[in-house]
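Fold it.
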Amino acid sequence: MGLLTRGRLIVLVIVVALLAINVVALRWSSNLFVSKNTRSLLRYGDRLPTLKGKSLMGKETVELATKNPTNLILYFSSAQAPGFSTELVKYGEILSRRHKKDGLGITAIVQEDITDLKILIDKSLVSYDVIVDEDQQIQNQLGLRLGESGVFVFDQQGLCRFSTRRAVTAEDLRQLVAMEFLRVDPFEQSAHPQTTLRDGKRVGSYPLLDARTLAATSMDQLRSGAGAPTHYVFFTAECSVCSLPRYLEEYEKFRRDQLKGDNHAVLIFDFNFSRSDVLQQLEAKHISSAAYIANEQLPQLEYTSDEQVEEKSVAVVETDARRTVVNISPLKSYAAERNSSAVSVIKVDANIKARPNTTNGVYEEVFRHIPFTAYDVATYQGKYFLTDFEGNRILVLKDNTEVERELGRIGSGPGRLFHPGNIDVGRHGTIFVQDGGNERIVKLDQAGNYLGEIGVADYQGLAVGVQNQLYLGQPQEGHLITVYSNSGKKLRSFGQLKKFSDVYGAAFSDKDDPYKIAFNRVRLSTDKEGNLYVSFMLTPLIQKYSPDGALLFERRLEAPEIDRLMEAIQKRKYISSMADGADARIVALDPVIDPANGNIMVPLVDGSIYLADREGNKLSLLQPSWTRKGDGTFYPFVAGLGAKGELLVTPFPPKNWYRLVMPANPDSNTTTALSRQEAILAAK
């Protein structure tokens, strides 16, 4: 056995031995794959059926009908995530108070009596109907399967305007009500009632509930009298379950190190936090600070410093004796400044040209001036096409990164989008976008006009061929790639599926069946000749196919650093999904093809980049530095090609885009492929 093979085997033994390690479930991991569910969900244009259930509000039986009216139905499958959602129930109450007078009717449906929900009802914190679907009859009528939750919007005639079984946020509900009920653009100022808190502004009066007693109070009452607090810690995190323990640990360290004596700041949790989660974690961390949960949306925070910090979910709001805001900073940055130590932020000069003694480059943030949530990028005629996952739209940017137009808005109707993901643009400008929340691929022209949709389930990886044929990664169809026509007709499949033992040896054949689908999940891209490039997500392997599906080459990504990454990925929390019933830990991202020379760039989950020539032969492994996030991690999730030929990546969870900037090397006259690649990237 050769040294290389023996080394791989040792690495693999370590990898397999650690596959059973439990991974913290990541909220975005549920969006890695399109739903496998084929049950007939109540869809756009369907009529609201007669739904009846036992009321939790003191009534006997409630019948849902639009004459009541019921415009918005929130169905929760169980008390466990992603079932019952305190966030949606509370925000539903906010919407009900704002728009009930205008005819908005909300009903929440649960399958059992839930403690947190019962408390909200008993304290009159939820006033709309809540009913119990004890025999799951309503679930069946809505087309939901066992264990699925759903959100539905109906018009006054009882016709469905929106439906999804995907996870929905309070921001999604805000946009839905704006579009489907109020008939206004959700991004217009009038549709944004949320206030902004900034330096020089007095802290407003926000209704609060004592987290420990549920006694009603307000910010005004907290701020009155002598000895009023001057530090407030606002918790605005989206995911309280997975982030709350760490944030409270950071707060306790801040309290000990920064506040004098036994002083405490006041903890203010946004409405989306579960009271039971807050109480549990306060007790577990032995935190006695006063803690309150907002009874409506907290204000948007405008940070004092414009430093490049991405994790701003927990903020310190400092006030003076007259209770005017003098500083708003992310908790970590605030503590670092007070310690006069090096902050956990590395600022990158936007005009950087070179870094001494390195040829690895740097990731530099782009599109920072645009408020949106990144997911994927495509280019056409020198313009960027960006999917805004949380904004439920497509942004079209000119080559100077100014927004030229926006396409789509939240919804399930023709041309509407819900949590758009992958995007690609055909040769003649047709836009193909993964409309994940609606379980379809939507086609639009350059003006955003609806051209049709393709109902395809369960795929990962999307690319458009020269004739607008769609390449989708669908290993469950028996091959790696399935090809669909522009109209959605299945044409052919190609690409032999890999077994676990094919890559790592017969000794691991017991992994073949559990990883049959997960091991063959791929990311895709095409070049200008229509060749298809395939990157395997769970193993360092790339392939290239001709437009008709002939395999041109297969290469393993070879580097000692990659072997070390394969070990480390089982010990550290990178990116993981259980969507295919296997502990699928992501290794490689989308293959990105340099249009100037055909070189292949494959970003890896640790931020490194495998660079190969057009035949798949290794040129280098780049390890760029980056503008660090609050916790110092940078795990790329999606990669793409920019309008100027630059490599773009968005780290997990997708939020902002970064481009690779390579330093100039004026002292070198070499004409190797690597230096040529660097020169091209540096010039972009």
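The first helix runs from residue 3 to 17.
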